[in-house]
TrEMBL record:
Peptidase A1 domain: residues covered: 57-292
Entry protein name: Peptidase A1 domain-containing protein
Signal peptide: none
GO BP annotation list: proteolysis
Amino acid sequence: MHQDKLSYVEIFRQDQARVDYIHRRASNATTRLNPFGNSLLARVPTIIDYDISAYSYIIDIGLGTPTKFFLFTFDTGSDLTWTQCEPCINCHTQKNPIYDPTKSFTFTNIPCDTSYCSQLEKFGCSSNFSCLYEEEYYDNSITNGSLIEDVLYFNNDIIYDFVFGCGHNNTGVFGLEDGLLGLGRGPISIINQTPKVYNKIFSYCLPSRPNIAGYLELGKSVPGVKYTPMLTKPEMPSFYFLNLTAISVGGEMLNLPPTIFSGPGTMLDSGTAFSYLPPTAYSSLRSVFKKK
């Protein structure tokens, strides 16, 4: 499905829809639904291309044996990694051939009595006891299918027995990407599937313009890099938060009460285009910015 370049109004509307979706996820954090009834360091070029998916960050991922390569959106606000799969009931147009697990001799189905399956937000069990999943996004796009494992490749790094979604029925606006890489903090994310390999560390440098490469790194970076501790909210355990202490514009520190950022922390989300501030902080920022 082709997406034209979005206007700022359209971007804001999509962004607000994502923010609302995040709030809904927080309110439903303790709910687990069954929609089916009983039935090392990796350095990967990250490309932004408005002709592929407006304001999404794209990486090249290898799957299966023999290896086939796919374009994935990466998202720090999602846990589940998934790709479109054959046999495809309903798949959107993508640039690469659709992943066919039956042509990979390292592919395996995940049983529905495993922790990977039960920890999904929406899960079920097929007639052959394989795990089924469903993931719904802020714009009402949905992917559902089977939970499987196969080999995943980041450049020269190999992750064996990587668990991800094999999407047989995918509806909504997904652009031309082949799937999504979940970098959240949930148990099924790539971060928590590889703690012994990458020590739950990743970093990225986002490209500033279309068709310019950025980088996604899994694992500890070069010595001397300073890190900011991340916070966790119990009701939103999959998301990343940090303490925002102050804001300055052109060297001028905003005159804000110290309690303005004393709440649960500031969320970092690769899928949100705009920054959002409390009304008091935003008003002060806007006032100082207009003077510059």
